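Can't paste images in this forum, so I'm doing it all in text. The chain is below; anyone willing to post the predicted structure tokens underneath?
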Amino acid sequence: MGFYGASVFAVWLLAVWPPPSWYRAHAPRRTAFMAMRAREAIASSAHTTHQYLPVSLDEIAPSLQQAVIVAEDRRFFEHGGVDYQAVREAIGYRRSEFSWGNPGDRAALWSALTSLWGRRHEVRGASTITQQLAKNLYLSPSRNPLRKVKEAATAYRLEAVLSKHRILELYLTVVELGPGVWGVGAASHHYFGKPPSRLTAGEAALLAATLPSPLSANPADHPERIRWRRDMILRRALGYPVAIPPQDEK
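Text version of the structure:
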């Protein structure tokens, strides 16, 4: 790759609009995921509603914040956008460290990579909340490796300009939680008839349990599919609670 090719790649890698700093004080009007779902609905001639209600972190029950962190990213407050420990565990690399100069490390990495296809669901599950926010705001659910590279780069940029609490707030505001249901503000009213500040621990865990497949299993459609995950989230939250630090601002 020459200088021109490298420059084009760098521009592509960093090109997102609006820039991450815009979200310091603004709620997204429409995300890339919302636009994608709208195009899909038009292509299939499907009639879908669009429920979206941005809320602040103070309006979200602490039990819901904790349930989502427990379900999606337990080390959210510890990593810088990409959780390399989770990635290492997901691909099956068992060593605590890695060095290209160590033959044993290279052999262990090669062994993990050759079995990667069989662990693809675990790898997808290693995405952090920040990566998922980057994907929701700017990208798509494509599994293209280059798209994942851009997702990681965008996650680092979000972490550089936004506080952890703002990232969590934005994620909870825009995450897809059912057909045409975006964010915990809309989802709480849609499924439980109440604001997210009033959710019980069980309702919060049930909402968090929809995140792997919100279109096919949510509190309204096939709730039995996610009850086991709700119970798992409750057990983890009770047994190993995540300490949410006081809010700070960047």
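The chain has twelve helices and two strands. The chain has a mean pLDDT of 85.
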